[in-house]
Amino acid sequence: MEPQAYSAMVRTNATRFLFSLIYSAGTLVYFALPVWGGLFDQEYGFSAAQIGWLLSADMTSNAIANVSARYWIHRFNWQRSLLTFVFVFVAANVACMFYQDFSSLMLLRYIAGFAGGAMVSIAVAGIASTENPDKDFGLALSLQVFLGGLLILSSSALVDILGAESMYIIISIPAALCIPLIHCLPAKMVSQEDQTRQASDEFAHGKTLYLVLAFTAIFLFFTGMNSLWSFAELIGSELGVHDDLIAISLSASLILSVAGSLLAAWMGGKTERLRAITLGTFSTILSVLALLFIPGGWLFFLAINIFNFGYNFIIPFQSGWVSKLDNSGKNIVMLPAIQGFGISLGPILAGTVAEKNGLLQITYLSAGFLLSSIVVFTALYYLQNRSPLIANERS
């Protein structure tokens, strides 16, 4: 291999790894939510409603950052932008170590969440521009799940040794590791003016309603999933499950979730999206409700594993459905924001329900949102089938 070709290959692989690392660093906080739920309750003594607001802060500002990225991602220098956002992300997390009052933590979590969301926007835009984005998104997801599972599995030991505040430093480490590789990042993204014009044509052909329905269904889905996931540790404790088994259950479920996405990749194109989404969502609903009617430590382990397996199994079919409605890619960039808004609303609603009616009632809240998601997806499916404009794009 020629030296120049080898150098280009190394740089390309380093860039692809950097995109995966940025994506993982910006989303790692999601995997810390169940652990933080316990810390805010046991260490800081916050109410269930306050915990819900704190757990939603990162996700809310993350989604805001995704939306705002539409207006700067093509204009600003990526290297300088990433360096700035990494610095803000790390600084806000370190500052959290010195504050234990609700208002200060809320503000700092919003700042850290916005910086993390901006980092994810750069990563997603970069991965989408690679030669094989499907493969690179898979690599990013694999690294994300690995780090998330490692975080949850080791959280109890790390908190015992280093203290509760150490979690803020731990989630900052992957972001800090991006700094030595920033030189591998492209300076800017290629202009997509042609895609913007194509997107306008799609709206002119009447796809706006279908996109709204798809985004609504996805929003309901993520609200339902995260309402339970954010309080999974506390629900396990309420059911009398041992702390070690809770930690093992949560970490194992994240590893198993990779199998869900791999199964979805194998089934892609072989089955209707609505059928796959319905099957996966109903399995998830049954696992959630099983926590109420069949109590037990190992049942909790099984239910949480089915829950996260279904999570990653369903998402690829949802994303594929939206991409079919928006071939230009202009509107699918809103997908992380829609997911983020659902992720942020879930713990707020769950915290309110838990404070008024008890932790176990969150299971009914989660199941209700998931069922509503299926209803909207079904409506979208039948509306598409009645439309002659996109008869060749039925899902």
Automatic annotation (TrEMBL):
Subcellular location: Cell membrane
Keywords: Cell membrane, Membrane, Transmembrane, Transmembrane helix
Single Gene Ontology MF annotation: transmembrane transporter activity
Coiled coil feature spans: none
Signal peptide: none
Keyword set includes Cell membrane: yes
Pfam families: MFS_1
UniProt GO cellular component terms: plasma membrane
Protein name listed in UniProt: Putative MFS family arabinose efflux permease
Residue stretches making up the Major facilitator superfamily (MFS) profile domain: 12-386
Transmembrane segments: 17-39, 51-69, 81-100, 106-127, 139-161, 167-187, 208-225, 245-267, 274-294, 332-350, 362-383
Membrane topology according to the record: Multi-pass membrane protein
Keyword Disulfide bond among UniProt keywords: no
Annotated PANTHER family: PURINE EFFLUX PUMP PBUE
Species in which this protein is naturally found: Pseudoteredinibacter isoporae
